[in-house]
Design brief:
The chain is mostly helical. The chain is built from 22 helices and 3 strands.
Length: about 575
């Protein structure tokens, strides 16, 4: 009997050792593959390489059809290798890495599969404006810097020609942006045409080469290449105005694109990371709009305003007291709110990022069609992040909305979350550098709510601004699905947003065009925020007096940007650990 027990014990120990060895082997396979994928991405995407302090193999991403097809095949092969590593055989941390890598690879594969390269512009941005930002981050202080910039100037015209070629292909197949969202879009191209060479934005790094004396021959070489870039922008402008803008599709639904139904469902899943149908998302939005509207009405009642909610919103949109008089004033108020929140972060977190951030205006070249504010991540590890504030059309940028916007884009929102993730050097790069919209934007919207808990909203108007921003995100669930799936017209969506938010008419038009031209992305905010609040409520109810808000927030951000189903699993594990401790 004793011999049998000993035999069984040895067998169990042997099986346990085998299981541990299998887990270690699969973990090693996973990490090797993650590194291979990351290195391949760096080799393919120069902006990624530069952000990692690497010298890229090429000046711009190769967007020739052969290069894009090769990347599609390589990413598909990587995904097949990844799926050969059994998820259940990995520890919890590696499982998260496995799922994150799969998410990232799927997006690359799906973008090519749905031929998104045919539509390289949205209502507020495009390949031309992305290229146009390059001179802003270019410094010439050596011969190597000069040579690198000359190669980049050589690459710009070809890149633009290929984008135009794909846009022509899309135009012939009904795969284009809707005509209505492109009104005035040519204004984003004009800053790069009709200039003297010395005035052209792409010549600015040559003028700014103060620490490296350029010869007249080098200046002449640069001038010729900048002239070629300007001609490429002129060609794009002519194509856009004379061919594209007047021949694009007249309906607004992404579902009328080739493979449109499948594409929209794919983007819903990608941006929300949740298994929700368009109808379910639409209904969630309607319910949230009703709830938030009731809270807005309560503020109006408390203020004893003489009029209904629509009259109050009109008052907010038109009264001069709620608007900055100069761009500098708007930036100063945003900066002041940022510093107020900086001082209150210790009430909400134990761990905070090292990376600093600045407050700056949206560049003039894109401001007219750009959203109200955005966070811009550092382009390298020796640069700060930036909270961009749109100073165009000041009478459409209400000050009562600025606290919520600031908390969302700067701290404790995007800058805080993205910087923490980037600083987690013990995690694989795919975990540190992948942005999950449902998590990141859900966190941003939840960050607006946190301002209520630490006293950022100093009067009822600020709080109404917060509710208006929350309403804005709830309305997105209704109008995005409405326009792309349920046959809503642009005018119906505009009327719905104007009826239910305090956003100015200019902002509403800009936002509606963004939802039309960037299908399903706007769904991520509210879906993510609802999940985070659900998880907080569960943790508070389960842990009672032992619930630590700062520890809870640290746990939410401890694993980087993750899909919502992973976030839920992480929080459930954390709750169990807190109960055990």
């Amino acid at each position: 009997m004793k011999a049998l027990i000993i035999s069984i014990t040895f067998t169990l120990l042997s099986l346990t050792a085998q299981a541990i060895q299998s887990e270690n082997d699969n973990s090693q396979k996973l990490h090797t593959l993650l590194e291979q994928v990351w290195e391949y991405e760096l080799s393919q995407f120069p902006s990624m390489a530069r952000s990692e302090g690497r010298e890229p193999q090429q000046s711009l991403t190769d967007i020739s059809m052969s290069a894009m097809q090769a990347r599609f095949e390589q990413f598909t092969a990587f995904q097949q290798q990844l799926n050969e590593i059994e998820l259940a055989s990995l520890n919890n941390d590696d499982q998260i890495s496995h799922l994150m890598q799969n998410y990232r690879l799927s997006n690359y594969i799906d973008n090519f599969r749905f031929k998104e390269y045919r539509v390289p512009i949205t209502s507020e941005f495009g390949f031309h404006s992305s290229l146009g930002r390059i001179p802003d981050s270019t410094r010439i202080g050596s011969q190597q810097d000069f040579d690198r910039y000359m190669r980049l100037l050589d690459a710009v015209p070809h890149n633009m020609q290929l984008n135009v070629q794909y846009m022509k292909e899309g135009l012939a197949l009904g795969h284009s942006q809707p005509q209505v969202v492109l009104i005035g879009y040519e204004d984003s191209i004009t800053p790069f045409i009709g200039k003297t060479i010395q005035e052209h934005p792409f010549y600015a790094p040559i003028i700014g080469a103060n620490n490296f004396k350029l010869t007249e021959q080098q200046k002449a070489e640069a001038a010729q290449k900048v002239a070629n870039v300007q001609q490429a922008y002129q060609d794009f402008y002519d194509f856009f105005v004379n061919d594209y803008q007047v021949n694009t599709k007249t309906d607004i639904a992404a579902t009328t694109w080739p493979q449109g139904d499948a594409f929209y469902k794919n983007r819903m899943k990608h941006y929300t990371t949740a298994d929700l149908s368009a109808q379910e998302i639409h209904d969630i939005g309607l319910a949230e709009v009703a709830r938030i509207r009731a809270e807005m009405q309560q503020i109006i009642d408390d203020l004893e305003f003489d009029g209904d909610i629509n009259a109050f919103i009109e008052f907010l949109r038109t009264d001069e007291q709620f608007y900055a008089k100069t761009a500098e004033e708007l930036i100063m108020v945003a900066s002041y709110i940022s510093k107020q929140m900086d001082a209150r972060l210790p009430q909400l977190f134990y761990k905070m990022p090292r990376t600093p951030y600045g407050v700056a205006p949206v560049p003039d070249s894109i401001a007219p069609k750009y959203t109200t504010g955005r966070y811009i991540s550092p382009s390298s590890d020796d640069e700060p992040g930036y909270y961009w504030v749109n100073t165009y059309a000041l009478d459409k940028r209400p000050l009562y909305a600025l606290p919520a916007l600031t908390l969302h884009e700067a701290v404790p929102g995007h800058h805080f979350q993205i910087s923490l993730a980037a600083e987690m050097e013990d995690l694989p790069n795919v975990r540190r550098k992948t942005y999950i919209s449902a998590f990141g934007e859900g966190w941003g919207l939840y960050s607006e709510y946190l301002g209520l808990e630490v006293g950022i909203y100093e009067d009822p108007y600020d709080n109404f601004g917060r509710l208006s921003y929350e309403m804005w995100r709830a309305c997105r669930l209704v109008v995005d699905t409405g326009m792309h799936v349920f046959g809503w017209s642009r005018d119906k969506a505009l009327a719905y947003m104007l009826e239910n938010t305090a956003l100015s008419e200019h902002n509403v038009r800009t936002e509606i065009d963004r939802y039309i031209s960037w299908p399903a992305q706007a769904l991520s905010y509210k879906i993510g925020e609802i999940k985070i609040k659900e998880l907080r409520a569960k943790a508070q109810q389960t842990l009672g007096n032992e619930f630590d808000l700062r520890a809870f927030h640290d746990e939410l951000l401890a694993h980087g940007s993750v899909p919502l189903f992973i976030l839920e699993r992480n929080v459930n594990n954390w709750i169990t650990a807190q109960q055990t401790n």
